[in-house]
Amino acid sequence: MVMKNFESCCSTELLTDPPSRAAHAARQIIQTLLQGYQGKVAVRLWDERLAVGRGRAECTLHVRSPEVVKRLVVGHDLCTLVEDYLDGRLEVEGEFESLFDTARHFETLQLSRRDKLRLFRLALKLPGPLLRFQAPAGRQENGCESITRHYDVGNDFYQFWLDPQMVYSCAYFADTNQSLEQAQRDKLDYICRKLQLQPEQSLLDIGCGWGGLACWAARRYGVLVHGITLSEQQWRFANEKIKHEGLADRVTIELRDYRELDGESVYDRIVSVGMFEHIGLANFPDYFGRIKRMLRPGGIFLNHGITSDQPWGRSQLNRFINRYIFPDGELTRISDVLDAMEQAGLEVVDVEGLRRHYAMTLRHWVSALEAQSAEVIAAVGVKTYRLWRLYMAGCAHYFDRGSIGIYQAQAARQQDENYRQPLRRDYLYLPDRASVARE
Description:
The protein is α/β, with parallel strands linked by helices. About 40% of the residues lie in helices and about 15% in strands. The protein folds into 2 domains: about 5-125, Nonspecific Lipid-transfer Protein, Chain A (2-Layer Sandwich); about 145-435, Rossmann fold (3-Layer(aba) Sandwich), CATH 3.40.50.
């Protein structure tokens, strides 16, 4: 997709023709809505005149239709702009993540009754409907339909921007110069160390994705892995990977819901990476209770999942994710997660926050997606490309800001005499001889 470089924006001084009636009204609306805004974003109208900001701003919103501005009068927040961006009525030029700098302004914007009336009158001067119907996002029952909607876009799509291991979760960086590929390998090994895997142990991988962790654990730590996923495309890819790597005797991947699993003391180790976000708060007791029952005495459970700095509500971020990405997505504070684990009979033995790592991971993904934009658009269409570009850049912004976080919570059964937590965390960082020997 070709976009005009944001540094080549035409300035108002270069344009001698008077603005149209609609452009004049739109400029007044935008200036009112962004009054007091001191951020990095500029706004340029369809007549190439700037409404707000500098010509060399880090990020410029190019409004290509008066309808975009007209709808801002009714819904003056970032979410109002999403459909217009997806449909091409609004372009984003320059540093994409800076777009979300406007969200904080809109969240605190308070207009007087006089301003609201003035904006409404100005909006009537613009063509197009004042409101556009949007079907409610709806909520699935935390199951197959929502997983299919998100993950079955196509394996080829994810291969454009994920690492070779196809790991769609937060990487673990040593420094800002490390490659995404190595950071994801480090993350896989880091999880295996936290689980303290030993040869011939049984490992359940809930939400195993494309099989990256399952194959890594089986190949390098000699464990027997049972992985489950609700995505048929992930399931097919993972089974092909298992055959290719000669791990059919050690790894089994099923197309299965975690709620179909049961039994007492079935697994030595249980792990869930990047699946927890789909559970839903109401299902925490069943989720953690089921894990506790299936975990053998002396066993270890590791939950790797995204959290929020406040209970899931109706913020701009919440609405966007539930409408366009995860219809069943529901996040909460890490304190609520840990409390639910303890209520289910699990002892929390280690907690680590990886928020900065996820912001870095997302920026790698966005860069890879943008670098192959033509190929991605040819494969899945421009709207899907725009949606994922917007989604991942926005998440990077909110992880950086601290509105959302990610934690690895390690747990064992409460009052488990067979479990022995190492006295120090050296085992996470010292070379693992058994793993190195299998390289």
